[in-house]
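Supplementary Methods, section 5.1.

A reviewer requested that the exact input to the structure prediction be made available. We therefore reproduce it here, unchanged from the version used in the analyses.
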Amino acid sequence: MEIQFNQFHYSGRVEGGAYFDSSRDRGAPFWFKLGQCEVIKGWDKGVAWLRKQKQSIFKHLVKYEAMLENGRQVSKCDGDFRYPAICKAVKTMRRGEKAELSVKFSYGLKQIGNEGDIPPNSSLIIYLELISWKSVVDIMGDKKVLKKIMKAGKGFDRPNEGSTAKVAHIGRLEDGTVFERKGSREEPLDLVCFEEQINEGLDRAIMTIGKGEQALITVLPDGHEVPGMVSANSQLYYGVELIDFIKELPFWKMDNHEKLEAGERKKYDGNMLFKARKFCRASKKYAEKYIEFDHSFTDEEKVQANALRICCNLNNAACKLKLGEYLEASKQCTKVLQLDPSNIKGLYRRSQSYLRLSEL
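The structure derived from this sequence is encoded token-by-token as follows.
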């Protein structure tokens, strides 16, 4: 489970009253973990929305008319726009707002076309109206997987890694050809999020979708593993509906028995992935934090937890060696040797790591 740490300055006051608290007065920002109930619910929701906005690309629909100062019309459009000035202005506008922009002609010169008879030092008056806008979420942060919400879902919660989701989706190519159809509202597809059961880009996108939400997911070339019948250079479009999901219980809500069971389960999943030579995915399984904190364990549970830690750290070291991450492999072995100083596998794999590091 990924935990997002946030650093903020804040000031708080009662509506219409004086300020009662401020991080700036203390001279240090405030840290908290998103979604971990460390702050009031309003903060969790508000900050999650801000993070989402950082990853959003906004598409605006506008009406505009561009004129010279003498009243001559040089451009008019209902729909998309090409003026750099308009690109900046719409980010400050509300839906339905009308504005008048005064712009140097050269700022929009390339977008107009037949400008040969217009003096280069002319000014433009642009009458602009923002009709509507839609946000497109950049899932990966590299514009290779994009999500456009077609119908909003319910609630604030989203699936996380390990959640069991019930989905229906249809995959299409740019020409509309259907290459994949899985699940329906009546018989949804059951999948475990981020277990490589479906296209990776689609998998990551599903973890941003709310219950009942319908979305169009666009997966660009090189941002996905494609089915055999689809070219590696194809742009893919998935119409997705998240029917329901069951979120995996976070470790901080588990009792001791549940933590140990979850640790064993993740170790088994990691072993299966390692045998399939999926070392990066296996490493993440071994690195789960279910038994990292054992202050509430009984003596018997501590023995079980230590055995599980040793096994997972050794296996994680093996993954890191396969991935060429030798420094990290040595750190995993050191964790093992802190619990069991004479552990043969720990000593051997750490020596392998040191040898490889000395060769670099």
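The chain has ten helices and 14 strands. These observations are discussed further in the main text.
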